[in-house]
Write a structure and sequence with these properties.
Elements: H1 3-14, H2 18-28, E1 35-36, H3 38-50, H4 54-62, H5 65-72, E2 80-81, H6 82-87
Antiparallel strand pairs: 1-2
Length: 89
């Protein structure tokens, strides 16, 4: 998958009602620290996929969690924050 397509998928994945996305983020953030580890991010994507987000379903089906995570983790610290998720919109 090329970079441009990945960015389009990531943006589409995060589009939609903010409250649903925030709920999915909060449920996935099991540590409660306001940031998602790669394992928590997978739970986040799975939650969005179960909620019917087509792009999340595509990421899940393709197993491209790591690629999506890396695109959203702009500062490269190994965590995805709510601010990084919001910046993708």
């Amino acid at each position: 998958m090329n970079v441009r397509l990945t960015l389009v998928l990531a943006a589409a994945l995060l589009a939609g009602p903010v409250h649903g996305q925030q709920d999915a983020f909060s449920r996935a953030d099991t540590s409660g620290d306001g940031a998602l580890t790669p394992v928590e991010f997978k739970t986040f994507i799975d939650g969005l996929a179960e909620a019917g987000r087509a792009q999340a379903q595509k990421v899940k089906a393709a197993g491209r969690y790591g690629l999506a995570f890396d695109r959203i983790d702009k500062n490269g610290d190994g965590l995805v924050t709510a601010a990084e998720v919001a910046a993708m919109r």
